[in-house]
């Protein structure tokens, strides 16, 4: 985690105004408080509502990436951006999406580590290229051909979304919930 305390504290769920409650409605679950990311973004309810609309597309079945492919891209992007919150949250989601703990460790070292399929290697390579150059090289684009045009677009959308999310989490100082701990490699800054 880059910050040990929030710069913008999450709102107290008991103190929300009507506009904040409405913006948070899509992430409210019976008997559970919203995650700190959402309680922090609720300081700007209109922005939160727009953010959730786009984020819901990226995380939905409308995204051409499989859940495993999507989570590989999100995890590599979160790691590249040094986002302890993002990496911790999506490590758990990744495990539910068919990524092993060993693969999560390997993807931290980059596309060359681990036993990736050719397509997964290309996905991780594209994540690194987008992070470092904001561009997918021609050879990587060609290696992603199996995804089709929509799948390649959705990969760029996913990396872009989670780069933005990581920037917000890091800059606002959003802290992990409860007893969650950041990955030790992302607790170095």
UniProtKB/TrEMBL annotation:
Pfam families: CMD. SUPFAM superfamilies: AhpD-like. Residues 45-119 form the Carboxymuconolactone decarboxylase-like domain. Transmembrane segments: none annotated. It comes from the Bacteria. Signal peptide: none annotated. PANTHER family: 4-CARBOXYMUCONOLACTONE DECARBOXYLASE FAMILY PROTEIN (AFU_ORTHOLOGUE AFUA_6G11590) (PTHR34846), CARBOXYMUCONOLACTONE DECARBOXYLASE-LIKE DOMAIN-CONTAINING PROTEIN (PTHR34846:SF5). This is Carboxymuconolactone decarboxylase.
């Amino acid at each position: 985690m880059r910050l040990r305390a929030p710069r913008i504290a999450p709102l107290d769920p008991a103190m929300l105004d009507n506009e904040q409650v409405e913006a948070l409605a899509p992430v409210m679950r019976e008997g559970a408080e919203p995650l700190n990311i959402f309680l922090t973004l609720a300081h700007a309810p209109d922005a939160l509502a727009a953010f959730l609309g786009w984020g819901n597309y990226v995380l939905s079945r409308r995204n051409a990436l499989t859940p495993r492919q999507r989570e590989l891209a999100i995890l590599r992007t979160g790691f590249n951006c040094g986002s302890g919150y993002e990496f911790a949250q999506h490590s758990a989601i990744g495990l539910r999406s068919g990524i092993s703990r060993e693969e999560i460790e390997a993807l931290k070292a980059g596309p060359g580590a681990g036993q990736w399929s050719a397509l997964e290697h290309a996905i991780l390579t594209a994540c690194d290229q987008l992070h470092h150059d904001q561009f997918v090289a021609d050879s990587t684009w060609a290696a992603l051909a199996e995804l089709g045009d929509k799948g390649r677009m959705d990969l760029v959308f996913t990396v872009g979304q989670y780069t933005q999310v990581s920037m917000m989490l890091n800059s606002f100082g959003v802290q992990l919930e409860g007893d969650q701990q950041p990955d030790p490699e992302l607790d170095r800054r």
